[in-house]
Amino acid sequence: MNRHILGEALSSLTFKELKNLEGRLEKGICRIRSKKEVELQNDNMYLRAKIAENERAQQQSNQLIQAASSYNRNFLPVNLLEPSNNDYSNQDQTPLQLV
């Protein structure tokens, strides 16, 4: 029987047996294709869910970055609050004289 399914040793089969074998093979192929279709649909659903999950994670990451950026704009950097040795900062100072 397995040899017949593989298309081997068909010469001993009658026309009726060949038709019967052909029908069984077509049914088997139909079941295989149906199973493949179900598996492909399951894989597609899984991949779509992963894409949606990644998009949500990316949006959350972008929101956190934007929130951190706007939060940081409310503060002056520490080096702006400290006196520096730059020439332009010394020009604004007027010398004091004791009398």
TrEMBL record:
<keyword id="KW-0175">Coiled coil</keyword>
<dbReference type="Pfam" id="PF01486">
    <property type="entry name" value="K-box"/>
</dbReference>
<feature type="domain" description="K-box">
    <location>
        <begin position="1"/>
        <end position="70"/>
    </location>
</feature>
<dbReference type="GO" id="GO:0005634">
    <property type="term" value="C:nucleus"/>
</dbReference>
<protein>
    <submittedName>
        <fullName>Agamous-like MADS-box protein AGL1</fullName>
    </submittedName>
</protein>
<dbReference type="GO" id="GO:0003700">
    <property type="term" value="F:DNA-binding transcription factor activity"/>
</dbReference>
<dbReference type="InterPro" id="IPR002487">
    <property type="entry name" value="TF_Kbox"/>
</dbReference>
<feature type="coiled-coil region">
    <location>
        <begin position="35"/>
        <end position="74"/>
    </location>
</feature>
